[in-house]
Amino acid sequence: MTSTQDLRVATGLAPPRAFDAACRMVVDYLARVVPLDAWVVTRVADGQQTMLVTSDSGYGLAPGQSTAWSSSMCQFMVAGAAPRIVPDTRTVPGLAEMAAEAAAHGMDVGTYVGTPIVTGDGHLWGTVVGLNRRPVDPEAVDQEPLLDLLSSLLSSVLEADTAAVDSARALERAVSDSESDALTGLLNRRGWERWLAREDERFRRFGDPASVVMLDLDDLKTVNDTHGHDAGDRHLRHCAAVLRSTIRSTDPLARLGGDEFALVAQLGVEDAHNLVERLRDALDAAGVPCSIGAAPFTVAGGFPGACAEADSVMYTDKRARRGASGPRE
């Protein structure tokens, strides 16, 4: 085979529009041509390596499982410190020590095969990985040209699919009045739920880092009871303005009703924690304090799981704030 077109003809890999479909085709094809115990497509982001698509017959690997990038064999391959094809991991420094540590935890890795998936500007996006519990004959995995073609195919589909999603998101940001909160101009609950439904599949497809942040305005009932509902409306609009000024314009922000707000930040866990602290400081300084909870999106739990967890954390924060400063609404 001498070209990506030859590969598509030989394997039946017609160029799919969705990146996850391309990943499934590549993994299934590799499992047939180079039958190792597992083939996996992973996403590398926020210091984690997360499995997106798997074909496993020996390890029990599944989409959504994650490990620290610092403990991944792929780090050596990407850095050029280890070959992409290692029939016997005991023969390569770095991989040998990591394989011994994995074996101590019941996961034998005798053979490692890996190739990077890169973005259009050359940055690491993820990897295609093959693993076998026992070392294999070097000829059985002598497929470097095939790996080059498959990783190139995935990079091309990734770039096209990412561009298509970016265009769709730009159109979707022009939401209808029925999806906007009349008081604050933010998404309303309907718009929020429609955004989550659309984006859940996209985030699962690409394994992008994201965190859900739920907020509950602490003093709205007091403002309404003391100064009237017009003052309460101004309080809500002020809170919305502070939130808008603290997050990126592309991150969806919603008023779910009453004194509840929510947003999705396309950030990993540590950066999301820093954002929560910035939000808390900005809201307190503006006189619109909120109880806040955040939780990361995961491939396994999706946005429904992240929303439920963030809501729980927010109510824990609310109880703690009430205990520290007296009853709040």
TrEMBL record:
Top-level taxon of origin: Bacteria
InterPro entries named among the record's database cross-references: Diguanylate_Cyclase, GAF, GAF-like_dom_sf, GGDEF_dom, Nucleotide_cyclase, Rev_trsase/Diguanyl_cyclase
Limits of the GGDEF domain: 208-329
Protein name according to UniProt: GGDEF domain-containing protein
Organism: Actinomycetospora rhizophila
